[in-house]
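Handout, tutorial session.
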Amino acid sequence: MKNKVKLIRILYIIGVVAMIIGALDPLEGSIVIAAGSLLVAVTTYLNSDSHWKIFAAGFVMIVIGVFFLFYLSSLGGFGGNSGLSWWWGVLVLPYPVGWLGSIIILIIRAVGKPRPKAAICV
């Protein structure tokens, strides 16, 4: 049981680090960010965390935005001489919104005061 808790904590930390490191290069790092977001969403779900739904929604948004990022990139981009208007860029917006929302919740969790543990009656 204790090893499971340690493994979940390690995977959570790896996910947070991946989300931060992936932001150094948003295009190539988008896969790292998506994987990190998945780790954070799964580990918070396994811990029955109150924020797991927000992290899951952030993961879905990141995956949708990254999909369209790569799809539009394969078409030659949007705007300029590509033949696609700038409005196609709206399809990429879930990626930064999901990442930013997840990072904000992580910061709030890190700065916020810890909740008291529930008393265990024997």
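The second record follows below. Compare its token runs with those of the first.
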Amino acid sequence: MLVLYMTGDLLPDAQRTSRVLGFAFYRSVLETMTGHLSDTAIATQTFGLYMAMATGLPLVGGWLGDRLIGRKIAVGAGALLMTSGHLALAFDRLFLLALVLLVAGAGLLRGNLSAQIKALYAAGDRREEAAFQYYYVAVNTGLFVAPLVSGTVAAIWG
């Protein structure tokens, strides 16, 4: 969805892209490392960086939750950052900031939520397995349904 949005709406409109805070600098940094990039290549690079950060930052978020700020605060801060990131996505100007907020929030949330679920049960409690199964079913259902719903909404209402 990110690549489709960037190639279909954001990047083809030069006036719109010029309003995105820091986009010219971001593009120049990417092109310094790779050479000239088309709109599709910029979108694909952005998606790759976003996924790499969303996958890697839970290690940092888990460390922060364990060592510095506590799991409850880390989960709450992660949820707040992700909510702020999704709100910022509504404004083209804040596009790159929104992606940063989303990956930071995902790092804090994903890095601490599983440990928080485990802490709900005593060692050897059989309900712990069921709790993790419910958790993973909910996460995977959301991963499956979210693109379908958002794609449908985008197709109908733009």
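Points raised in discussion: DSSP finds seven helices and no strands in the chain.
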